[in-house]
């Protein structure tokens, strides 16, 4: 975002709460706080609906995505399956595998620069929700705390091997119990934000606002 001149545009659309906040702050600093910033959440792949009815079969963890974007301690490498997915075709290939896993491991390396950075939607969280799985993720991940609550039990504080290992073992020991089920309910609640009708409503609201802005 530091490389973009956001003042060139009359209307902005963000894909996360974090990005929306950052754009609004940037515009306010430029004296343009009146310019609208809409929000459309980045939903999970619709093909995940095919596995939504699977029943749980024990504690199993997987990382879904590009391996270089994960921080998996050596001690957990045999416990966390890596399902490589970079493109839509890759994701289609691993779809049958996703129904096997009840915890999505989504711990990233720490950011090199916390100020000059981009903003990512919480797609891994929405993907876990669509798979009826819990997610283990950095507390600092954009939108994670906003969507799951500050006391969600499977946030990793920092990125040290000890912190990751301890959080993972907590999740494993909680499996099937009240803490696990409460966490799963929180993750599942995110699906409400990305129902097709909700997303269509967000886009409809944005178009109405844009038309009014042009009219003014």
In short:
Helix content is 38%, strand content 12%. With 216 residues, the protein is of the alpha/beta class.
Number of helices: 7
Strand order of the largest sheet: 4-3-5-6-7
**Intertermini distance:** 28 Å
* Poorly predicted parts: none
Oligomer: single chain
What's the count of strands? 7
Query: What's the story with the biggest beta sheet?
Result: 5 strands, parallel
Q: What is the H/E string?
A: EHEEEHEHEHEHHH
Mean pLDDT across the residues is: 89
The proportion of strand residues reads 5-15%
Outline type: globular
Percentage of residues assigned to helices: 25-40%
SS-based class: alpha/beta
Radius of gyration: 19 Å
Architecture overview:
With 216 residues, this protein is α/β, with parallel strands linked by helices. It is 38% helix and 12% strand. The chain has seven helices and seven strands; from the N terminus they run βαβββαβαβαβααα. The longest helix is centred in the last third of the chain and has 20 residues, at 196-215. The mean pLDDT is 89.
What's the SSE blueprint?
Layout: E1 12-14, H1 17-29, E2 37-39, E3 61-65, E4 80-84, H2 88-98, E5 103-106, H3 123-130, E6 134-138, H4 144-148, E7 155-156, H5 161-174, H6 178-189, H7 196-215
Helix pairs in contact: 3-6
